[in-house]
Amino acid sequence: MKVILLESVVNLGELGDAVEVKPGYARNFLIPQRKAVRATAEAIAAVESRREELLKQEKARLDVAKVRAESAIKELTISRRVIDEEGRLFGSVAANDIVQAAEEHDTEILRSELMMPEGNIKNTGEYTIPVVVHPEVRFEIQVTVVPDSLVELPEESSTSESESTDSNESAGDETSTE
User: Fold this and answer.
1) Which fold has domain 73-150?
2) Does the pTM exceed 0.70?
């Protein structure tokens, strides 16, 4: 499906570009979010007539993104429980955890702006997380995950093993009596 972008979209195009996208992406994301319109003759004429207004809006979004990037916190420390001395976490640190930690330091970051290509953080250590607040404005947050406490994982007790062997023996006795 061919659409005309009403604002810059990461990995797709700039304002006013006519691009070909999958129909589902256009119907479910671009058009409802008012990031694009279907490429019809009327839409092309409307975008051309509103181009100056759209450029002003795009410049305002860019300026806001630059201010957010400059004022954003660049280092975060998150403490989590670990399950062993190697630093494996009990659970993980997800994008939502980073957003909450940033909010505690009066920095607004949206979950969708965090780029975590390797997925959730599952070990202690230092991680560099890229943040894309605008297609032209990016910055990085240094996230340090430190151990809070060691969690003892429950191990199977020897009594439960002996009970299971007793029940297996009695089951074997029942089959032999038949």
Assistant:
1) Ribosomal Protein L9; domain 2 (3.10.430)
2) no
